[in-house]
Write a structure and sequence with these properties.
The structure is a single chain. Helix 4 runs parallel beside helix 7, helix 8 crosses helix 9 and helix 8 packs across helix 10. The protein is of the alpha/beta class. The strands form two sheets. A seven-stranded parallel sheet has the order 1-4-5-6-7-8-9. The chain has a two-stranded antiparallel ribbon with strand order 2-3. The chain contains 15 helices and nine strands. The longest helix has 24 residues. It has one domain: TIM Barrel (Alpha-Beta Barrel). The protein is globular and about 55 Å long.
C-alpha cells in the first residue's frame, strides 16, 4: 500500500511535482455537507471536537464524497485552550466566547502546559483516522498565537481588535507573555497530533491581516516562529495560512513555513513573486466563486492552476474556508476538474 509520504499532497508540499495537482479545502470537514449536519444535530461544537468517533466520521466525510488529496482534522482552533481549562464556549452564530477576557499577568499565568492526558479523545481520533485514511495524508492544525490571543483578550470575535491592540501597544511585556504561553500550548498540541500520525500541520492565523507588517514582525512573528519551530524536528510539512495577509506573506514564510497559504485577495502569481525562489504555495480560489456557473468556476480554477506553475510546489485550495451554503456537488465537480488538469511544468 502507498504511504501518505508518497502522496500528491505531500509531494507538492515538499516542492516537487506530483502526477496531478493535489486539492483539499479548508473547512471541508463539515460546514456544507448534509451528512455533517445530520451527525452534529444536537451536539455542541466543542463536545463534538472531543468525541473520538464523531471526529473520525466528520473528518472522513469529505474524503469519501470528494476524493480530496488530504483530510483536515475536524476540530477548532480554541480546542487546546478548552483542554487546559479556559472557560470558553463556541456560540452558534457568534464564534468562540471567553467568560473572563485576559486583562492581567495573573490570568496569563493560569494558562498551563497542554499534556497528552488533556486531549486523549483527540489523539485517539488521529490514530484511528490514520488507519482509516491509509495513503491519504491527515493534516493536523492549531490556531496561531495572535488569533488565539485576540479571542482571549476581546472575549470573542472582534471587527477592529481594539482591546487586542490596546494591550499590544500599552503593555508589551504582558502581550509577549501571553503570546509566549499560547505559542507553547499550540506547539504542544501540534506535536501530539503529529506523534499520533498526522502527516502535515497547518497553523491558522485568521486575524493576522489586521496588522501592519511592522507590527506583525514586532509583536507576532516571533511567537508564530516558535510554534512552527516546535515541530521542525518531526519532519512534516508546515503550512502557514492567514486571512488578508497579502502584505505579510514574506514574513509568514520566513517564520518557518514550508508552504504559505494565500487567500483570494492576492493573485497567486503575484504571491509567488513576492515569496521568491523555491516558494511552495497553497490556494487560492475565492470561496464565493463556487456559487457561480460551473464553467465560470472551472475557468477560474484553471487560472489558479496555471498561476501555481510558477511555484516550486502548489496545493490547490480555496482562499479561505468552504462557505456553509456551498453546494457539495460544486465542490465534487471542482475536485474532478483540478485532478484532470495537466501538471504544469516549472
Amino acid at each position: 500500500m502507498a504511504h501518505p509520504a508518497e502522496s500528491a499532497f505531500i509531494t507538492a508540499c515538499r516542492g516537487d511535482r506530483p502526477d496531478h495537482v493535489p486539492v483539499w479545502f479548508m473547512r471541508q470537514a463539515g460546514r456544507s455537507l448534509p451528512e455533517y449536519r445530520k451527525v452534529r444535530e444536537g451536539v455542541p461544537m466543542l463536545a463534538s471536537c472531543f468525541d473520538t468517533d464523531l471526529v473520525v466520521e466528520i473528518t472522513m466525510q469529505p474524503v469519501r464524497r470528494y476524493g480530496v488529496d488530504a483530510a483536515i482534522f475536524f476540530s477548532d482552533i480554541v480546542v487546546p485552550l478548552k483542554a487546559i481549562g479556559v472557560d470558553l464556549d463556541i456560540v452558534a452564530g457568534t464564534g468562540p466566547v471567553v467568560a473572563e477576557p485576559v486583562r492581567s499577568r495573573a490570568q496569563v499565568d493560569t494558562l498551563r502546559d497542554l499534556v497528552a492526558d488533556d486531549v486523549l479523545p483527540i489523539t485517539a481520533a488521529v490514530e484511528a483516522l490514520v488507519t482509516e485514511l491509509g495513503p491519504t495524508p491527515l493534516i493536523g492544525f492549531a490556531g496561531a498565537p495572535f488569533t488565539l490571543a485576540s479571542y482571549l483578550v476581546e472575549g470573542g470575535p472582534s471587527r477592529d481588535h481594539r482591546r487586542t491592540k490596546q494591550l499590544m501597544y500599552g503593555d508589551p511585556d504582558l502581550w509577549h507573555a501571553l503570546l509566549g504561553r499560547i505559542a507553547q500550548i499550540a506547539g504542544q498540541f501540534l506535536r501530539l497530533q503529529v506523534q499520533a500520525g498526522a502527516s502535515a500541520i497547518q497553523l491558522f492565523d485568521s486575524w493576522a491581516g489586521a496588522l501592519s507588517p511592522a507590527d506583525y514582525r514586532t509583536y507576532v512573528k516571533p511567537h508564530s516562529e516558535a510554534v512552527l519551530a516546535s515541530v521542525a524536528d518531526l519532519g512534516v510539512p508546515r503550512i502557514h495560512f492567514g486571512v488578508g495577509t497579502g502584505e505579510l506573506l514574506v514574513d509568514m514564510r520566513s517564520a518557518g513555513a514550508d508552504v504559505v497559504g494565500v487567500d483570494w485577495r492576492v493573485p497567486l502569481d503575484d504571491a509567488i513573486r513576492r515569496l521568491g525562489p523555491g516558494a511552495v504555495v497553497q490556494g487560492n480560489l475565492d470561496p464565493t466563486t463556487l456559487f457561480g456557473p460551473t464553467d465560470v468556476v472551472h475557468a477560474k480554477a484553471a487560472e489558479v492552476v496555471a498561476a501555481g506553475a510558477a511555484a516550486a510546489g502548489h496545493v490547490f485550495n480555496l482562499g479561505h474556508g468552504v462557505l456553509p451554503d456551498t453546494d457539495p456537488d460544486a465542490l465534487a465537480r471542482l475536485v474532478d476538474f483540478v485532478h484532470a488538469q495537466p501538471v504544469p511544468s516549472a
